[in-house]
Amino acid sequence: MCLHQKAEQYLRAKIDSGEWKVGDCIPTEMELAEKLGVSRPTIRQALTSLANAGYIVRVKGKGSFITQPKLLHESTSMLVGYRQESQKKNRKIATVVLGLETIKPDAEIAQKLNLSKNDKVVSLTRLRTVSGYNQDRPVVLTHVHVPLAMFPQMASLDFTQASLYDALEEKGLGIRKAEKNLDVVVATQEQSSLLQLNPFEPLIRVTNLGKTSDGKIIEYSQSFYPASSSQFQITTER
């Protein structure tokens, strides 16, 4: 193991043990170098790795501060809903339903779901938090659209507790294939307010097109994650 990796391991142990808490200013590069018996460039490399991983934020002229590690989202590599992913990771989530209505879709949604101009969709908007994470600030804002003709019962469900993916599965409409896309977008004023973003903080948008086993498109969604507190797992195989 290289010296900077040993230094990083030492620093992470301080954070993971709770000895250094969120908001604490850690010792200076010089102090850490003297304590560990290594050079300042070695410490600087270790601190850079921690900053890239979201464990610390470095403020010029003030020092390095412990920050909340980024929340890892694995749904980009799995065909599961957010509730199932959270259960797998033993995260306790809270869901606020901001909207659940039957509407006539705009051109983009109709095109994504292969609908005609007279078709309708059930539109669901949810805001989610993970208990104890980042002072209980919301972690994701999601807009989901499902063809009304395929799942008319959706509009009557309580999505503060119910899982959309479980409900689809029960109706024989389980998602077996998904096309996902990630990009970075500028937050609207409403999104910034709902997600309690830092000034000028961008969003990571994940769009998802879900299909049943026979290839029917059952879901089109857009999920918006705060860029400063989100990271994503992408799994590929050859």
Task: Give structural notes.
The protein is of the alpha+beta class and 238 residues long. It has two domains: 3-66, Winged helix-like DNA-binding domain superfamily/Winged helix DNA-binding domain (Arc Repressor Mutant, subunit A), CATH 1.10.10; 71-232, 3-Layer(aba) Sandwich (Chorismate lyase). The protein contains seven helices and ten strands. It has helices spanning 3-16, 29-36, 40-52, 82-88, 107-112, 164-170, 189-195; strands at 56-59, 63-66, 71-73, 93-103, 121-130, 138-147, 177-185, 203-211, 217-226, 230-232. Helix 1 (3-16) packs across helix 3 and helix 2 packs across helix 3. The two termini are 29 Å apart. The model has no long low-confidence stretch (mean pLDDT 89).
Report the structural category. Answer: alpha+beta
CATH superfamily descriptor of the largest domain: Chorismate lyase-like
CATH fold-level assignment of the largest domain: Chorismate lyase
Contiguous helical run count: 7
Number of domains: 2
Helix content percent band = 25-40%
Largest sheet: 6 strands, antiparallel
Strand proportion, as a percent range, falls in 25-35%
Molecular shape: elongated
Q: Mind telling me the C-alpha Rg? A: 22 Å
Distance between termini?
A: 29 Å
**CATH first level of the largest domain:** Alpha Beta
| Average pLDDT figure | 89
Strand/helix succession:
HHHEEEHEHEEHEHEEE
